[in-house]
Structures are given as C-alpha cells and as structure tokens.
Specification:
Blueprint: H1 3-14, H2 18-37, E1 42-44, E2 48-55, E3 58-61, E4 68-71, E5 74-81, H3 83-90
Antiparallel strand pairs: 1-2, 2-5, 3-4
Helix pairs in contact: 1-2
Length: 91
C-alpha cells in the first residue's frame, strides 16, 4: 500500500474527501517526524512508538577495498509496534 492508497482508505473510513484525508495524513506524518527529530518519543497507544535511537560509532570495512574505516556515531529513527498491532498482524 502506498500513500495514495492509504489516503483513499482514510477518506472512505472517515467519510471525508481525499483532499482532507491527505491533508490530515500529511500533517500527522510531519508532526511525528518533527517530534522525533527533536529527540522526543511519539507513542500511539495500540499502534506503536516512534523514537530516535543512537547508534554507536563502530569499525567497518570499505566493500571495494576491504580497508578498515570508522563509521561515525549517528541518530536514526526507530519504530516499535504496539501490542494490538502485533496481535492483528499475527492472526
């Protein structure tokens, strides 16, 4: 399912226009991204949690040359599925 198909489903289930559904979905995604980028955790009960996670600096290898290199520390977004979401998928 892509974003367009998701907008169609939301519009159908919420009885709103596709334009309104797209605006709400875009606003929700943007708000989640902004919060996580600021270091906050966003929890949607039953669905899951979005949070920033630190990745330690580590030793890696250049795949072309095999030369050892240091991969710097970074922060990446992470998602953890909630209990209801896990149960729904496992059925």
């Amino acid at each position: 399912m892509n974003k367009g198909e998701l907008v169609d489903k939301i519009a159908e289930k919420a009885s709103v226009t596709k334009k309104e559904a797209d605006a709400v979905l875009t606003a929700a995604i943007d708000s989640i991204m902004e919060a996580v980028a600021e270091g906050d955790k966003v929890t949607l009960v039953g669905f899951g949690s979005f949070e920033p996670r630190k990745r330690q600096a580590r030793e890696g290898r250049n795949p072309k040359t095999g030369e050892a290199m240091t991969i710097p520390e970074t922060t990446a977004p992470a998602f953890s599925a909630g209990k209801m979401f896990k149960e729904k998928v496992s059925q």
